[in-house]
Amino acid sequence: MTNFLKEPTPFKEEEKKELKLLIKKKALEEKDFPSPFIYKLSLIIIFSLTASIFIQYGVFKSLFFIVIGYFNHQFTFMIYHSRIHASFKEKPSYNLHCREYIAWVHHYVEPKYLVCSEHYRAYLHWKFTLFFPLPTTAFLYLIGFEQYALGVVGSWLFWQTTLAPIHNWYHVKPRYRKRYFSYFEYIWLFLFEKVGLISTKKHYKHHNHGINNLEDAKDFQDAWMPPLIVSLYNNFFRWFQVLYKDGQTNMRTFLKKVILLNYLIGHFLFAYSANIIFKFIN
Ligand SMILES: [Zn+2]
Ligand SMILES: [Zn+2]
């Protein structure tokens, strides 16, 4: 394989072709390309679920779920995203999984290569749609908060769906966005950018580091998060570099535990606060 690292820009035509083929090959190997039908089906399921939150709990309680679900989802995203950056440090690029590899190319070779197809996004929806609701509902049942499962799971999936295309949004030039995104996606992403929930400008700051200073990666959120949380997480990521040892996977192993802890504590707190607030207002 061509050593892309030595010659990141300008990109030669053959290199571009080779890179595209490699991404496609890696994606196919890992079966990351389900049909667009699955993507549309998962959108229908998730938006119906969101509608049923409003039917089940009423407007006020549903808004609570949607707002807290946003922070729950985005914080989880930050941890997963930082884990991909830990992989960049701990794994040689040829050993990265498809998703990590595309992210690596996106960060350090050519940013436009994360503007990948609808099929790839479909993969994310499809996986989360299948695998997120059941364990989360089971967990909430175990801790006695099953009555909030629809709100917790539905709001998470709602944000997963509406925020999933934002990274593509950041890297598609504004004049091409109307053509690139579906009508509905364009409207909601345009509104998100207008109200400051997402910011193309801020996303470019995340790209302000290179292959030689991987530890300087920061701002792992894709959408707005309180500045205090962003800065605390940036500090955590810097501190956490002490775990790095050549040829080992300490950083990723540690983040795996953080992911599990965040899942358990985050969902417990979410359901617990719903329980307190809803009792208070009833
Ligand atoms: Zn990144
Ligand atoms: Zn990017």
Question: What can be said about this structure in brief?
Answer:
The chain is mainly alpha-helical. It is 71% helix and 0% strand.
List keywords for this structure.
282 residues; mainly alpha; 13 helices; disordered N terminus; binds zinc ion
Can you characterise this structure?
This protein is mostly helical and 282 residues long. It has one domain (13-281). It is built from 13 helices and no strands. The protein has helices at 13-29, 36-57, 59-90, 98-108, 118-131, 133-142, 149-163, 166-171, 174-180, 183-195, 200-206, 227-239, 250-281. The longest helix is centred in the N-terminal third of the chain and has 32 residues, at 59-90. The protein starts with 12 loop residues before the first helix and ends with a helix. Mean pLDDT is 84; it is low at 1-10. Residues 106, 111, 114, 167, 170-171, 203, 207 line the site of one zinc ion. Residues 106, 111, 114, 167, 170-171, 203, 207 line the site of one zinc ion (ZN).
Q: Layout of helices and strands, plus pairs?
A:
Elements: H1 13-29, H2 36-57, H3 59-90, H4 98-108, H5 118-131, H6 133-142, H7 149-163, H8 166-171, H9 174-180, H10 183-195, H11 200-206, H12 227-239, H13 250-281
Bound molecules: zinc ion (2 copies).
Molecular shape: globular
Count of domain modules: 1
Mean pLDDT: 84
What percent of residues are in strands?
A: under 5%
Radius of gyration, Cα only, in angstroms?
20 Å
DSSP helix fraction: over 70%
Helix-strand makeup class: mainly alpha
Write out the distinct hetero groups bound to the structure: zinc ion
Could you give a short account of the major beta sheet? Answer: none
Secondary-structure element pattern, one letter each: HHHHHHHHHHHHH
What count of helical segments does DSSP give?
13
Low-confidence blocks of residues: 1-10
